[in-house]
Input
Amino acid sequence: MSKTILYDGLNLSLSKGTGVATYTRGLMSAAHSLGYQTGVVHGLAGKVPKDPILREVVLFDDTSNRKPGAAFIARRWLRRQIGAPFGVKPVPITFSGTVILKSVQSQFGDSGMVYASNDVFQLARHHFKRYGNSLSMKFDAQPDLLHCTYPLPLVAKRALNVYTIHDLVPLRLPYLTEDDKRYHYRMLKALVKRADHIVTVSDTSRADIINVLGVDESRITNTYQAVHVPESLREKTEDVVADEIAGIFHLDWKGYFLFFGAFEPKKNISRLIEAYLAAKTTKPLIIVGAPGWKGAETKELIDDDRFRFYVRSEDRIVPQRQIQRFDFVSYPLLISLIRGARAVLFPSLYEGFGLPVLESMQLGTPVLSSTEGSIPEIAGRSALLVDPYNTEDMRKAITSLDQDDALCDAYAKAGPKQAARFSTERYQQKVSTLYDTLLNG
Output
């Protein structure tokens, strides 16, 4: 019988997705293709229903805009204060066919089995704060390994427990995140001490974790990451993609710059906008991302009415925004936006891996990115890297990409070759070695 690996569903249930969700789905897909049974543990906002059909329905219920009642808030607060000193027992969910899954199947990944527990991820955090140890989970069908794809104080009883730490940004750049740094540091120190193994996604992050948290080199593995863009999206002709971005976004093929990713301070969007405006290009800057922590000021800058230009459409003069922002676009449309861009601009101050860089290079779009964090490790010489703290260097780079067709062509050709070093096949080999060593070594 094949071994069973469970994963946390912390990020999988988010409708707009995150880099960690992409990582989780990729990791589950790799494990599934290697012959392991895979499953996911989800957290539900309320009690897990006893009725199996209602349990299935509630798992997919979108409660993001629903205001909880006072009684619910009081019960949740009390539960979090007490924690779960005797652990929790996630309940299995069987898919009966009641819920039509066509719209959400890909979001939840290759999960052969699904479990749910009341508020399990937030409960784990509060449990650690109260008791100083991880929240234990007991399962009727015992897994062989629990792999938390994000550092969570969770542990599966009588199983191997593995944790992915993508980066140490909250500790290395504490002024750029809203995390509770005291909690985060203590939790990570406790996590790496008792973990059966630590996984990370770059040599840069691996060195950080060893140096800052004191993890022995033999107990941490860098698997990198991989990006798989479906063939149906990669094989769309340029004409089809050009029609899509023109019809939906009113943009010209290779006639705009693009940033996409989380809208947070470490992404360096304010300096990017400053450099972009100073470059005096006529190509608009498209930003895909919803404002998060400390995003209000950047949003105001983006939406400033000064950043408009005017174009002639038939017999009319039409105002357009020089900087345009979209909170969210679907994955197929994002792929089309990447393919149609003159270049992707991603001057992050620090990344544990940098998925947008790899995605863009794989699709043959030139990339401007950063000399900080893991980006040089991932991009090699196949992207235009600048000091993300130096706005003038960034301005010069944007101007070069704007005006130099030969430069763009060179990066467009080099990108896919570099991206091939992070292929799905290579990733599966690394994941296979990791799990085989842990489960069979």
